[in-house]
Specification:
Elements (H helix, E strand, L loop, with lengths): L2 E5 L3 H12 L7 E7 L8 H17 L4 E6 L5 H11 L4 E6 L12 H9 L4 E5 L7
Parallel strand pairs: 1-2, 1-4, 2-3, 4-5
Helix pairs in contact: 1-2, 3-4
Length: 134
């Protein structure tokens, strides 16, 4: 039995993470999905709906029950994801990363970098593109 904490921002991120998790999830595993909005009270209703859709993609696509949390309290997403990993004693944290420059070098966003550098747990960084620069 494996406990996964998944950080997702939008439905596209969730779709890519879902592709990864479908090959890893087995009966008895636990999945906790975290959608953390950076804006706190300044977060728009469109961002809230996007986060809800991101959660829905994973909840409907995985063969095990998913416990989901959408935070709109102004914390950095990395902070909320790391706190969830600690709270649920995660065996693995799963996040998405984007390619950002034309040479193909991966540049991590600040949240991904914070998670990778701060976690004492294994972190899987799922690429959000198929090798093409965004």
């Amino acid at each position: 039995m494996v406990t996964f904490v998944v950080g997702t921002k939008n439905a596209d991120t969730s779709e890519r993470i879902l592709d990864y998790l479908q090959g890893r999830i087995t009966d008895g595993d636990s999945v906790y999905v975290v959608n953390s909005q950076e804006g706190g009270d300044e977060t728009s209703s469109d961002e809230i709906r996007g986060g809800s859709k991101a959660i829905e993609v994973l909840a409907e696509g995985l063969p095990v029950p998913v416990e989901a949390h959408q935070f709109v309290r102004g914390n950095d997403p990395a902070e909320d994801i790391l706190a969830a990993a600690e709270e649920y004693d995660a065996d693995e944290i799963v996040i998405g990363i984007r390619r950002r420059n034309p040479t193909g070098k991966i540049i991590f966003g600040s949240n991904a970098q914070d998670i990778l550098l701060s976690s004492e747990r294994p972190v899987v960084a799922v690429p959000l593109t198929d090798g093409q620069a965004q």
